[in-house]
Design a protein that fits this description.
The chain is an all-alpha fold. It is built from 10 helices and no strands.
């Protein structure tokens, strides 16, 4: 087995063990926060007055997407704190993690505004720059939460961690992301195929919420792995 495969196996094992042991607390975050974000977004984008369909549709989409991102951001930061502290041996409670997330929320919004603006420009330039820098900046929110960085400092911290292993990080997150997505598809697809289309939107929202939950766990565990392997301190969960 190659070193890359061993790394991915170690990260996947850590994600599985952490998620299994902390499943209840993770769900306590995912259901009230990510589901609310999905519901708010869906409700706003579904409200289109008939007098100006195009204009209101665009407005509803933008407002709904913005509110979803802001609400979800609180959940992502809360999960980052839970994972980071508990993997490092500190038994942080959900309420304490939520309070810590609130404390850095302003910095996170400011940072994501810069990140999304730069990525938008990058994707306009034939998409390639957006993909390249999207991968460089994948650990940005973790840097905001655990290193106290903000703005370009958080982007730089993430890029520094990915420098020299861009393809490995991209491939690892792609593979682990697909592994996270697979069981969710095994639940949602049969439901849709067995005549439960009326529940399709709810099932889709639940699937999106749990994907965001577990992919945040993946990214945070991977951040810890990269930071500790640099200092030769990584130990699998």
């Amino acid at each position: 087995m190659s070193k890359k495969d061993k790394d991915r196996e170690s990260i996947l094992k850590s994600v599985w063990e952490f998620s299994r042991e902390n499943f209840t607390d993770l769900v306590l975050v995912a259901v009230p926060i990510f589901m609310v974000a999905e519901l708010v977004s869906s409700s706003l984008m579904g409200f289109v007055p008939v007098d100006d369909v195009a204009g209101n549709l665009i407005g509803s989409f933008l407002i709904g997407g913005l509110l979803k991102d802001l609400i979800s951001l609180v959940g992502v930061l809360t999960i980052i704190y839970l994972v980071y502290d508990r993997v490092n041996g500190r038994k942080l409670g959900v309420n304490d993690a939520f309070k810590k997330a609130q404390n850095v929320f302003g910095n996170a919004v400011y940072t994501m505004l810069i990140l999304n603006t730069l990525l938008f420009i990058g994707y306009l330039l034939l998409m390639i720059p957006g993909i390249v820098y999207g991968n460089y900046w994948v650990f940005t929110l973790v840097a905001v939460a655990v290193k106290g960085e903000k703005g370009r400092g958080a982007l730089s911290a993430s890029k520094k961690l990915v420098d020299g292993r861009w393809l490995n990080v991209f491939g690892t997150l792609l593979i682990l992301g697909l592994i996270v997505q697979a069981p969710l598809l095994m639940v949602t697809l049969p439901a849709r195929l067995n005549g439960l289309q009326e529940y399709g939107e709810l099932i889709s929202m639940m699937s999106n919420s749990f994907y965001e939950l577990f992919f945040t766990v993946v990214v945070t565990v991977y951040y810890i792995y990269l930071a500790k392997t640099d200092s030769k301190k990584w130990v699998a969960w």
